[in-house]
Write a structure and sequence with these properties.
This is DUF4440 domain-containing protein. The protein starts with a strand and ends with a strand. It has one domain: Nuclear Transport Factor 2, Chain: A (Roll), CATH 3.10.450. It is of the alpha+beta class and about 130 residues long.
Length: about 130
């Protein structure tokens, strides 16, 4: 479900991030549909850019399977009156044809406040070295 406006936007954005990652692991297209803006753009660690629909379809069809996503850090900053930017790190575990893939990412996500809810507008991830 969309993150509701609260007196503390940071709490709403953190909940949206947790909910988005949980829905990606669960393959829950309905929740992802609610959390992403209609014109959302998702850029993966391999540089592939997907629209909201392409991103959700790949997950719900099983072409992309996340086993686990562990948020390691998040820094949130306002980007304007209705915009928040998240700079985060996460550990991703995915299924692949050759077994499990485990890799850390650094990511930037942009969340927009629309009609009383925050929604993910853009996300870009980069693989980083294991610490």
């Amino acid at each position: 479900m969309p993150a509701q406006s609260t007196d503390k936007p940071i709490d709403a954005i953190r909940e949206l991030e947790r909910g988005r990652f949980r829905a990606m692991v669960d393959g829950d297209g309905e929740v992802l549909d609610a959390l992403l803006a209609d014109n959302a753009s998702y850029v993966h660690t391999n540089g592939k850019r997907e629209s909201k629909r392409q991103f959700i379809d790949a997950i719900t069809a099983g072409r992309r399977r996340y086993r686990q996503i562990e948020i390691q850090s998040q820094d949130l900053m306002p980007g304007g009156r209705d915009t928040w930017i998240v700079h985060g790190r996460a550990l991703i575990e995915m299924e692949s044809k050759n077994g499990a893939l485990l890799f850390p990412i650094a990511y930037t996500a942009v969340h927009l406040h629309v009609d009383g809810n925050y929604r993910l507008l853009a996300m870009q991830a980069t693989r980083v070295a294991l610490d």
